[in-house]
């Protein structure tokens, strides 16, 4: 035998894993019963012995795997497995004759010769069938916010007459339910005639010398012209007042304001989402239209001089669409016009206020005599 330097100094190779498996399988051949083999006329006796030994080895391996409950192997015909799927990577066994690896059939596929069994699929994100209406009912006792959207309500039908009463009632409701009665009871909430586009405004401040903080709310008469607009605007401005009076923060529409706005919609689900700016369609008494581009401009009074101002888009001429009807003079105005000169001479040296008081007293006495 020829000897070389490589053969003398090379390390002996460890036995392969396949040989280890074969040795372990051979040791357990006596424990596992052999499967009966079908005689085949085309296979020689030596090949039959090899096939029988390989089948015995595979059978013992499958029996051990079944005991560990890892994979559903079987040497018989394919059977539909009803076990739940397990997220384990399958181990590929060496291909041998007479053995088949069963793969779990999908739930919606049909197995030949077997009836298809459909399992219900349940997902955590699957929407559940709930009530048809997504608006929850308000649980606040004495809440009447939903009725303010009903045109047959008393506050809606007679809004101009009941505006002050509705404002105070809404303030008390919001203060107790949303702000836990932390806002002052006598906070000033007034109506402003000059606010033409802004629905409401909250004025915050602090007294001199580090005194107490205060806040007051002003509402627009021209924009908040309905009960539902008053309902939605007042809670918006009260959220501004709460951020300053309760938290001592002036952050505009910041985190504290968003916190109170979110809380108001949770306490009163019938309220619309409290947003930063309103989207009300302001009703203007007078409408001007451009003769060139047909652009319309709204005004609360007939204060736009069409001879001096033109359209801002195309510089066309503006025309008044809804001309005002001439109104008859009031009786008191006619009385002042007739008697102001004589009364002024009688009260020579007096102020204009004194003359007007004298005229109003004379007009009141005259009307009382006329009614009697």
TrEMBL record:
Q: Where is the composition biased (Basic residues)?
A: 1-11
**Gene Ontology CC terms:** nucleus
The annotated region (Disordered) lies at: 1-59, 84-133
Pfam families given for it? SprT-like, Zn_ribbon_SprT
- SMART domains according to UniProt: SprT
Comp. bias intervals (Polar residues): 105-114
Question: Which Gene Ontology terms describe the biological processes this protein takes part in?
Answer: DNA damage response
Task: Specify the protein name.
Answer: Germ cell nuclear acidic peptidase
Q: Where is the SprT-like domain?
A: 164-321
Q: What is the lineage of its organism?
A: Eukaryota, Metazoa, Chordata, Craniata, Vertebrata
């Amino acid at each position: 035998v020829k000897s070389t330097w490589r053969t003398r100094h090379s390390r002996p190779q460890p036995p392969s894993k396949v040989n280890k498996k074969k040795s372990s399988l051979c040791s357990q051949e006596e424990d596992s019963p052999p499967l009966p083999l079908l005689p085949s006329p085309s296979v020689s006796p030596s090949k039959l012995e090899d096939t029988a030994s390989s089948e015995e080895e595979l059978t013992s391996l499958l029996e051990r795997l079944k005991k560990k409950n890892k994979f559903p192997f079987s040497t018989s015909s394919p059977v539909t497995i009803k076990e739940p799927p397990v997220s384990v990577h399958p181990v590929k066994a060496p291909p041998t004759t007479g053995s088949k690896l069963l793969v779990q059939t999908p739930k919606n596929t049909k197995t030949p010769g077997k009836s298809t069994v459909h399992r219900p699929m349940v997902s955590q994100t699957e929407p559940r069938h709930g009530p048809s209406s997504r608006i929850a009912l308000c649980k606040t006792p004495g809440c009447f916010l939903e009725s303010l959207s009903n045109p047959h309500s008393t506050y809606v039908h007679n809004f101009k007459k009941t505006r002050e009463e509705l404002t105070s009632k809404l303030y008390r409701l919001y203060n107790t339910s949303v702000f836990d009665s932390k806002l002052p009871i006598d906070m000033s909430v007034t109506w402003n005639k000059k606010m033409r586009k802004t629905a409401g405004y909250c004025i915050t401040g602090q007294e001199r010398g580090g005194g107490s903080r205060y806040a007051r709310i002003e509402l627009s008469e021209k924009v908040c012209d309905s009960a539902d607009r008053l309902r939605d605007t007042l809670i918006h401005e009260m959220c501004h007042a709460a951020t300053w009076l309760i938290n001592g923060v002036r952050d505009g529409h910041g985190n504290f304001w968003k916190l109170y706005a979110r809380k108001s919609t949770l306490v009163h689900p019938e309220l619309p989402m409290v947003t930063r700016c309103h989207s009300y369609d302001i009703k203007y008494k007078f409408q001007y239209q451009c003769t060139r581009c047909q652009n319309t401009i709204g005004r609360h009074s007939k204060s736009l001089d069409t001879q001096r101002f033109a359209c801002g888009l195309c510089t066309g001429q503006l025309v008044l669409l809804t001309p005002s009807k001439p109104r008859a003079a009031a009786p008191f105005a006619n009385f002042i016009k007739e008697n102001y000169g004589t009364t002024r001479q009688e009260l020579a040296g007096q102020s204009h206020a004194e003359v007007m008081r004298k005229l109003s007293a004379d007009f009141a006495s005259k009307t009382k005599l006329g009614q009697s």
